[in-house]
């Protein structure tokens, strides 16, 4: 109790000295804290960017991209082989097709062709008359110019929870309900735009591939393209379109963000030439690069601040202890133990450090935003190249998703600001206390070990 | 009470050897007021440091009540200094940010006396050395040299040691105050049966001594 009392009183025995020590330590602690906050903030931003990208790997048949290209579709045996791999959390397979009004369906697209649609139609018409290599299966042609109507996209899926496979960011059921994705019944969910255009509601039927399909739900996918589409259980679509066992996209969910790259490589080597394997990792790496730069700046600054902070704290305590070497000698002469002296100086160091930490934390909180803003400004200038490039997705919607993410990352940089968590403050305090104990106990121990006569000769 | 035998201490300064205590032997009986007289640099302070276990000798033995302190380990030396020795230094060596009373209380804290008992006992001791009333609550900086040395004496006797070692206790004091301090020490040796060894260069003090040793160039004559 009295050792504690003496330690506390010693910390404040000279107000100018105490003020100087507290100020020096507070600045060192504030610097460390700012760098720590910068690191933590950037780390959490990187995590949130990564998780917004999703840990998915898209496997498409080789040579086929959306409805472009040619080659053989994937089959259920490919799915089975992927399912046995490590790092796989879930596998979703989809089959995409286009329903043409008149030929395949009585549905009319809610999207007008416009100049883009007409141009695409024109070009596919040209190519089919010139060479027959493209779009034989998916893109029937020969419709007279001008009467061209946009096809309706149909997606067959075996998992409605993986919305990326449906080309939507989220699936809101506006009426009816979701179907059982494992079903083989002739049921479908349709987008709101398509339902409106064709006057369809839950319970009505429409024609597809010459059969009646019942609408069980109407959804809002958040974008016009998705809202003009039909979603069916994959087995239903395979049966109706006479493509049993065929798959044109597999979405593999990795167990974690960090295993995506490994999984991508594994799938590539397993399926070989049969499939094109794409993940968002490469593009996400580009998006994250500026953040990674800030992270490494903050990391090294944190190390620097920690080292210099520790040295400042250590040397300050060393001086505090050394200037009272004689007093330590006297205390030992009148019967104090080494442990008692260490305890007294540790208490003094702790009081000084806790006082400095409180001041340092206040300074740190005020300094963190300006410092982070400066870091972000620097990194944004350096990172313009990779940020400007478009993302590389799977189908068209994937491309849009990728680009959205890019601008999202840019926003992350602009809006990046430090938030002070209690956890961070506690970490800082804990670190300072550990350094203070080492910084005071070690010199106190060294002097306490010296023979009192020698300690008392010091002046 | 105190038996010093063939005591030698050697300091090394570069290639040079300094022997401030050179094969010294002497005895002091219990309750005596002994004076070790010597000039500056004669080795008298070093001798006192060795007896008080503030330093270790290179050769010889120091027996206190039959126990040889030169054979004690560090932990035993701590309790030896705490329980059996009281120090009085030339420059008082009080802890500057503690009051007179708190300074006297420190040694008692080391032997585990309760706070209340420490307060009562320290106050009584200070009364006895002539530091009374509010003066007891002053810090050393607000006390005169004589007052500080009285506080130091009260601190030295706080744990009722068997041996008081005073290193030039009057070195910083005028002759009038010096006499008061020496009388106080002499009185303690009689009433409390404490053995007192005073190291000094002041011939005057030897007049009060039960025993006087003269030390020259590390040797007692």
What does this structure look like?
The complex is a heterodimer of chains A (459) and B (221). Chain A is an alpha+beta fold and 459 residues long. Chain A has 15 helices and 14 strands. Chain A folds into two domains: 2-52 and 286-457, no CATH class; 55-111 and 150-279, no CATH class. In chain A, strands 1, 5, 6, 7, 8, 9, 10, 11, 13 and 14 form a ten-stranded mixed sheet that branches. In chain A, helix 2 (15-53) crosses helix 11 and helix 9 (281-322) runs parallel beside helix 13 (396-415). The model of chain A is unreliable at 127-144 and 382-418 (pLDDT under 50). Chain B has 221 residues and is an alpha/beta fold. Chain B has a single domain (2-212), classed as 3-Layer(aba) Sandwich (Rossmann fold). Helices cover 33% and strands 28% of the residues of chain B. Chain B has six helices and ten strands. Chain B has helices at residues 44-51, 74-84, 100-110, 115-128, 145-157, 175-191, and strands at 2-13, 16-28, 33-38, 59-64, 67-68, 85-88, 163-167, 195-200, 211-216, 219-220. In chain B, helix 4 crosses helix 5 (145-157). The two termini of chain B are 20 Å apart. Classes of the chains: A alpha+beta (459), B alpha/beta (221). At the A-B interface, helix 1, helix 10 and helix 15 of A face helix 2 and helix 3 of B.
